[in-house]
């Protein structure tokens, strides 16, 4: 039975949209990446991505299993009501760091609950890449390289981009990013819906 049919009632006002947004927000609040949550729960990264983008509605059992990886119970999950962001402008030091290690992802806005767009200032240290396993998720993404050189692979096509060069593609196409050369690479990117 789909979760939507159980919880989407006129009385609660809960919709399928709330499920993906809530899961993404709670995962980010706990500092867990989609990949880490997938490892903890045995649910594929692509399944978590589909749920968070509201493309797929999980069964109650599947949602419970995913929430155990955070960990949080169903009651707490549905009671969670994050504030809707009201801030419009952000100083450089107010961007929220959601990356780690050799890749920095500084997000515009602390909370994305109910938002359809994620904007990042990315910084890849020399040699840093997003991993041997290509990224795949629902949505679209694009970016502009500000400095350095970024190798972008989408499907089997690989291109090295420099300052001013850009990319834009459907995120369900397997993709990977890697910093080329001796200097860090900075990128401004956006994706819809937010992917991590």
What does this structure look like?
By secondary structure, the protein is α+β, with helices and mostly antiparallel strands. It has six helices and nine strands; from the N terminus they run H-H-H-H-H-H-E-E-E-E-E-E-E-E-E. The protein has helices at residues 3-7, 16-29, 34-41, 45-52, 60-68, 74-79, and strands at 96-97, 103-107, 118-124, 140-147, 149-154, 157-161, 166-170, 175-180, 185-192. Strand 1 (96-97) and strand 2 (103-107) form a beta hairpin. Helix 3 (34-41) crosses helix 5 (60-68). Residues 1-17 have low confidence and may be disordered.
Our estimate of the beta-strand percent is: 25-35%
Q: How far apart are the termini? A: 27 Å
Shape descriptor reads globular
Major β-sheet annotation: 6 strands, antiparallel
Protein structure class: alpha+beta
Percent helix? 25-40%
Please give the order of strands in the largest beta sheet.
Answer: 1-2-3-9-4-7
Radius of gyration: 17 Å
Number of strands: 9
The string of secondary-structure elements, in order, is HHHHHHEEEEEEEEE
Number of helices: 6
- Unreliable sequence segments: 1-17
| Averaged pLDDT | 85
